[in-house]
Amino acid sequence: MNTSNFPQDGYDPDDLLHLSAKRILVTGGAGFLGSHLCAALLAQGHEVLCVDNFFTGRRSNLRPLLSNPRFEILRHDVTFPLYVEVDEIYNLACPASPFHYQHDPVQTTKTSVHGAINMLGLAKRLNAKILQASTSEVYGDPTVHPQTEDYWGNVNPVGFRSCYDEGKRCAETLFFDYYRQHNLPIKVARIFNTYGPNMHPDDGRVVSNFVMQALAGKPITIYGDGSQTRSFCFVSDLIDGLIRLMGSAEDVTGPINLGNPVELRIRELAETVIRMTRSSSELVFEPLPQDDPIQRQPDITRAGRLLDWAPQVPLEKGLETTISYFRKIIAATQGAAEK
Ligand code: NAD
Ligand code: UDP
Ligand code: UDP
């Protein structure tokens, strides 16, 4: 082969293998889902720019990726404009745990709304495809069960959860208005409760709380009587769904539910975690937070039809991996304290 047209210095024949590689921006890339997404996109050969203000995200989530020359991190708050050059954008920036998103509710709404405007403006300038990490919270405390994408939801606009729920609803509106008004290629995923390694050990979400409490032999805190339900999706399944959605046909905009339809009561989750960790923890009951949804289960017919997607990891398998992740975190913290 005549290589005379190629620059001789720094020429890497492997580059030819990556002609389909893209430059991809992941906002919120240092968080739980974002860190797995960055890893999966790098593994596919793409260049990844992670943008994060490190509010709930952690550098340690990204440690395995730092040596990859196709990976970059930029500390930046998405409520401010961002000028970079990329081909695709996954917009994940936003705290997801009620404990964190209620810490500074005004900033939470700004992150969803101003963040969406800035990322959509960036996508518009570049004509880049953009995916929004929306949420099952747009259904609020649902009166339709299981939740289908055409259900408009039952959301309190002025409660403690509203900064998150209404911020995410407004972000969806913005995505669809940029689509209709500016012809922007958009994708909107409505993500249901997801768990797995890289969850923040004290972010207050139910899986991290229960596993950390069980491993420490502390009481398991059930809010309410534990009869409320959730459906838990393991992180690898969710990331697969997001990547499939981004790669889907142009006319597939969503919204599309992504979650595991196996529904269980919070009390059952507590009992499963106690059994799997062989913990002696007892159950304690605390007041149910305001507007805590009573039941939640995704209808994933649309994701099956349009993305050929369905979760593969059963709860106990996913919990096993998650429990061993939290065991390692505890061991590392104890090791550091003893030094
Ligand atoms: P997370 O809190 O672990 O990650 C969010 C990331 O966004 C963090 O790294 C945080 O530092 C960053 N961030 C927050 N505000 C920012 C800002 N203003 N500018 C830049 N970065 C900012 O949460 P997660 O579970 O990884 O969730 C990721 C996305 O998925 C969120 O948008 C969340 O709403 C959505 N989602 C998650 C779940 C779930 O169960 N994990 C469910 C539904 C929706
Ligand atoms: N924006 C950005 N990066 C870009 C282009 C735009 O962050 O590369 C932000 C900018 O703050 C702008 C917002 O996105 O206000 C919306 O952009 P758009 O072009 O839709 O509207 P504008 O406000 O510029 O009229
Ligand atoms: N929950 C609980 N104990 C905890 C943390 C949460 O009983 O220590 C309950 C919470 O009230 C809710 C469910 O578990 O009914 C899921 O809570 P999470 O914060 O994980 O997510 P979300 O409410 O946003 O679905």
Distance between the termini: 58 Å
| CATH topology tier name of the domain at 20-195 and 233-261 and 294-313 | Rossmann fold
Number of continuous helical runs: 9
Mean pLDDT: 94
Query: Strand order, biggest sheet?
Result: 3-2-1-4-5-6-11
- List each distinct ligand once: nicotinamide-adenine-dinucleotide, uridine-5'-diphosphate
- The succession of helices and strands, N to C, reads EHEEEHHEHEEHEEEHEEHEHH
Can you give the helix content as a percent range?
A: 25-40%
CATH homologous superfamily of the domain at 20-195 and 233-261 and 294-313 - what is it?
A: NAD(P)-binding Rossmann-like Domain
Q: Please report which band the strand proportion falls in: under 5%, 5-15%, 15-25%, 25-35%, 35-45% or over 45%.
A: 15-25%
Helices and strands: which structural class?
Answer: alpha/beta
Uncertain regions: pLDDT < 50 for 5+ in a row? 1-11
Total number of beta strands: 13
Mind describing the biggest β-sheet? 7 strands, parallel
Radius of gyration: 21 Å
Shape: globular
CATH architecture of the domain at 20-195 and 233-261 and 294-313: 3-Layer(aba) Sandwich
At the first level of CATH, the class of the domain at 20-195 and 233-261 and 294-313 is Alpha Beta
Structure report:
By secondary structure, the protein is an alpha/beta fold. It is built from nine helices and 13 strands. β1 (23-27), α1 (32-43) and β2 form a beta-alpha-beta unit. α1 (32-43) crosses α6 (235-246) and α5 (206-216) packs across α9 (315-338). It is globular, with a radius of gyration of 21 Å. 41% of the residues are buried. The model is unreliable at 1-11 (pLDDT under 50).
